[in-house]
């Protein structure tokens, strides 16, 4: 178990993440069609927010996003100023569309997730795979962001 | 024709804590129903579809992801997926087929021949 150093409340802003989410949601709101297909409750405001997990190793940061039923071509992964953005559009569903739909829970349309990365990454070496509806983005850390072991000789 | 594949809540209430209810979309045509369920992380091997007493149950188990490192942010849940539906009497149970692609299960449930709308030509 790790210990977290106490920080005075003035020094941190725990709500900052929520502001980022709010910004994402507001951006999504403008992208959504106002008169779309009957959607899941609460979808107007939250859109489709695919679950995102973030892992860290000494060399890499790995983002794992649940985006089932996409075409590889319709997923966009971009990196800007240490912020990873995953977006895309899903319209290919055959069920739950039009007049024949009797139940529509699967989200259709655009989504976007942004997350700020905990370390600087080498943008030229980012690699992504898409399997079983799960997108895995591997971002190698920049050389100077990797933990370094420094040998100190004691005299 | 008014009825559709109804969701069967009764049988799954006791297990909701252990399973995720996957998002589902259903559409109906003259030939049958199409049911789609979202199960990211599940492949063909982890999928189990069974019909018992007119109850269609779809269970998806994730293939364990091999990701090294420390988890620093988590939104996904590791539980398996399960959802049950009551099969409409118009469906030909012997002809139900399923496939899974990129975490989306698609079931095709054709209607029995005798309930399909038929066009009668007048001679």
Secondary-structure map with pairings?
The complex is a heterodimer of chains A (155) and B (123).
Chain A: H1 16-31, H2 43-46, E1 52-56, E2 60-66, E3 75-80, E4 83-90, E5 101-104, E6 109-116, E7 127-131, E8 134-140
Antiparallel strand pairs in A: 1-2, 2-8, 3-4, 4-6, 7-8
Chain B: E1 6-7, E2 19-20, E3 24-28, E4 32-38, E5 42-52, E6 55-62, E7 70-73, E8 80-86, E9 97-101, E10 104-110
Explain what you see.
The complex is a heterodimer of chains A (155) and B (123). Chain A is α+β, with helices and mostly antiparallel strands. Chain A is 13% helix and 32% strand. Chain A has helices spanning 16-31, 43-46; strands at residues 52-56, 60-66, 75-80, 83-90, 101-104, 109-116, 127-131, 134-140. In chain A, strands 1-2-8-7 form a four-stranded antiparallel sheet, with no helix packed on it. In chain A, strands 3-4-6 form a three-stranded antiparallel sheet. The longest helix of chain A is centred in the first third of the chain and has 16 residues, at 16-31. The relative contact order of chain A is 0.20. The model of chain A is unreliable at 7-12 and 35-45 (pLDDT under 50). Helix content of chain B is 0%, strand content 47%. Chain B starts with 5 loop residues before the first strand and ends in a 13-residue tail after the last strand. Mean pLDDT of chain B is 84; it is low at 10-15. Chain A binds chain B through residues 40, 51-57, 60, 62, 64, 66-70, 93-98, 100-107, 115, 118, 130-134, 136, and chain B through 4, 23-29, 33-36, 38-43, 63, 65, 67-77, 101-104, 106. Strand 5 (101-104) of chain A pairs antiparallel with strand 3 (24-28) of chain B.
